[in-house]
Amino acid sequence: MNYRFLFLLLALLGATGPQTLPPLHIAERFVAPEGWADMRDYLCCEAQQQAKRQTLGQQIPARMARACEVVQQTDSTAVVAVELRDSTGGNDFYLHFVRQDTWKLQAVRGLAMTNFGRQMLTVLESLPAAERARYNQTHPKAEYDFTVNNIRLWIGSDAEIEAHFTQRRADFEKAVRLLQARPDFTTTTANEDAANADPAINALLKSLYISRVTRQAADCDACVAFVIGGLIDNTVGLLYEPDARKVPTMNPSSLIVVKPLGKGWYLYKTS
Questions:
Q1: Is-contact 82 197, C-beta < 8 A?
Q2: What confidence category does residue 96 fall into, taking pLDDT thresholds of 50, 70 and 90?
Q3: Which domain of life does the UniProt lineage start with (predicted)?
């Protein structure tokens, strides 16, 4: 048998199939401004149904800078965060991958319903001083400055949320200590309400622009979740869980990203 011919034939047959690419490389090609002829070889599931002719990168305005970062990769799944940025600010979305015969892009996710927050912010920022004072009188539990800064975080980029956390990390950690000193801070709504109403905790949360602290968020009863905001199931916040084994697993159906910030802290989003 001519083994040299056999090896050549096998090599040619292999060359006709899709090249094996890791999730990061697939993400970078999928969000690049130029097209990608082999795109559909690396798609499956809902992503295959949604991306018919154009990559996501072709649909994004050309002026936007794009940066990809692997959030997590296991033997079977991966999540890559994509940051878009221009002179007006940034935005983020998340590519979920599954390994079949090769790595495939399964779904694209981002925090939904943020346009409502942007509309609210536009209205609030246009209020004259007298109207802002009146707003404080009618909203004593969520005054003007808190509400505006809370919405800015809610609709802000991951980088802006991370910068806020880094700047105020000591206060976030102080809030965790105060909560840990309360044995009644459990997953029952009544006990959570009591913890959030604690004067020291409440004042600290307001200064951090956090809407609520809970153990009933982000598919994790063990975590302490500092909820920034959102609508319905589309929320963003910060998680504290020092035991990495207890951190919930990302998935495209609910917990779309859990991004490590170091020493047991994470940025999370649900959808």
A1: no
A2: very high
A3: Bacteria
User: Over the stretch 236-252, which tens digit does the pLDDT of each residue have?
Assistant: 999 999 999 999 999 99
The 10s digit of each residue's pLDDT in 129-168 is 999 999 999 999 999 999 999 999 999 999 999 999 999 9
Q: What is the 3-state secondary structure (H, E, C) of the chain?
A: CCHHHHHHHHHHHHHCCCCCCCHHHHHHHHCCCCCCCCHHHHECHHHHHHCCCCCHHHHCCCCCEEEEEEEEECCCEEEEEEEEEECCEEEEEEEEEEECCCEEEEEEECCCCHHHHHHHHHHHHCCCHHHHHHHHHHCCCCCHHHHHHHHHHHHCCHHHHHHHHHHCHHHHHHHHHHHHCCCCCCCCHHHHHHHHHCHHHHHHHHHCCCCEEECCCCCCCCCEEEEEEEECCEEEEEEECCCHHHCCCCCCCCEEEEEEEECCEEEEEEC
Which of 190, 146, 154, 195 is closest to 175 using CA atoms?
195
Q: Whose structure tokens read 């992503």?
A: 47
List 231's β-bridge partners, or say none.
234
pTM summary value: 0.90
Structure tokens at 267: 């940025």
The residues pairing with 96 across neighbouring beta strands, listed in sequence order, are 79, 107
Tell me the residue type at 113.
Answer: M
Provide the token pair at 142: 């969520």
Query: What are the extents of the domains in the chain?
Result: 3-107, 114-270
Residues in Cβ contact with 19 at an 8 Å cutoff, skipping those fewer than 6 apart: 38
| Strand pairing class (89-99; 224-231) | unpaired
How far apart (Å, rounded) are the C-alpha atoms in residues 24 and 17? 20
Query: How far is the C-alpha of 24 from the C-alpha of 71, rounded, in Å?
Result: 10
